[in-house]
Amino acid sequence: MSGRTLRYYWDSCVILAHLKNEVQKHPEVPIIKRLLEANAAWENSILGSQIVKTEVLNFELNEEAISSFNAFYSQGQNNIADVDGRVAALAGEIRHYYRVHPIIKGNSRRGVQTPDAIHLATAIVYKVDEFHTLDIGILDLGDRVADKYDLNICKPNFPITPRESKVDDGQRELFDEDDRLS
Fold first, then answer.
1. Which tens digit of pLDDT belongs to each residue from 43-65?
2. What's the CA angle centered on 182, arms 87 and 55, to 5 degrees?
3. Structural domain total, the chain
């Protein structure tokens, strides 16, 4: 192992499944708990977007869950990224791509909603190792967003070993400015 801290992006549904302990609905909840234990030991970092706050706090949660959520992103190894110009522009590009090239599954055709585009764009801009989601619609995108950006989209899993970045040189040039969150 290289000693590099793994960087995950957690879609809001992953956080909600944990906070609501939805084990019956999502068998990945115990894996999420293991990832959180590894996170507490500084073995990974978890990134979210400001949109996560809006989505998670929209649900009816008890005070303990709300407090846990707020404390989680105040820990040093975890961050909430602002929707800055880079993220907004990329989210717009992703939405446009899937409006022109909808995802076809069975008889349905759909694009990517704005919150999901913001989640995806944030993960791409900040070059995470994995984008964790339980959302079938996002999982259906595969590992290539908008047929241009490599992103390992998967259900939460544990453990993984770091692999070479899938970010290609053209993608790296787009987002080479300082991508560390403060």
1. 999 999 999 999 999 999 999 99
2. 50
3. 1
